[in-house]
Amino acid sequence: MTIWTDLLETEVRFVTANGIRTRVVEAGTGPALLLLHGSGGHVEAYSRNIRPLAAAGYHVVAMDYLGSGLTDYPPHLPDLADRVGHIVGVLDAMEIERATLIGESFGGTLAFAVAKQHPDRVSALIPVVGGAFEVGNFDDPEGQWRRSMAAIVQRQRAFLAKPSREAVRDRLAWLFHRPDRDITEELVDTRWHFYQREACRRAIFDLSAMIEDDVDYRFGARAGMKRQDALRPMTAECLAEVAHPTLFVWTDHNPSTPAATARSAADHVPDSEFVVMDDCGHWPQWEKPELFNTLIVDFLRRRLGGRDEARQHGEG
Question: Does the global pTM surpass 0.85?
Fold first, then answer.
């Protein structure tokens, strides 16, 4: 199983979204699913999911967001409006009226933001170990969330200071519960290729600064500072306003937001379900793709209709 063979029979192309040349991978027909990767990621994060989800009766689109993979990066620091506009721009460019948004890590944060600002473009939400939540004790007593954010910033800055294939491997290791099982040489080579692009390095630098500022803001490290717009968190009040069917997919070894925090967030969403995947870290869609794909399809068929009904009423 390789990225190359996983993506055979998909279409890889570029669209212009809000003026940005954007890479997308597309397969299938039916109701639309838009797959959003995490910070520092790229569409290959979903290489083990695109064709199986398409085979289940869906029009599946994975996109590189701003500065990621092979997508261009704007000359200015993008804020939340830019990022949301870019995602909606992809839907527009591909003539997709509504889509289920599946967002891993930072992609989950962006999925919630799109649903809040453009609810008519969203059918359902599936945050995957992702979403900026401020509910209950969002940082557990052991400080898991803070330690995790510090670790990812350290790895990203280590790469920027001394770019190398091994620095890429170290950054990837953070994603997995069992790196020895899940990191492939092909994945390292793919990300190393992308990370040599100037657009990717600028995006990594900006996202690292944004994460660091958000940690400082949450814990009052710098009095009077203004929160980075792109990491505006989902409070209990915001979560209560989510009007779409929502499936929270978490893991038992997620290195960032603890499962208890995510479960608390799910409790505030009126129409939500919560599931934990075992023996996984921060890339469950790659670590256990068969289970992940089954969970997604089962949720969508139960909540949005079966395959035949979906084909008749929701093709994107």
Answer: yes
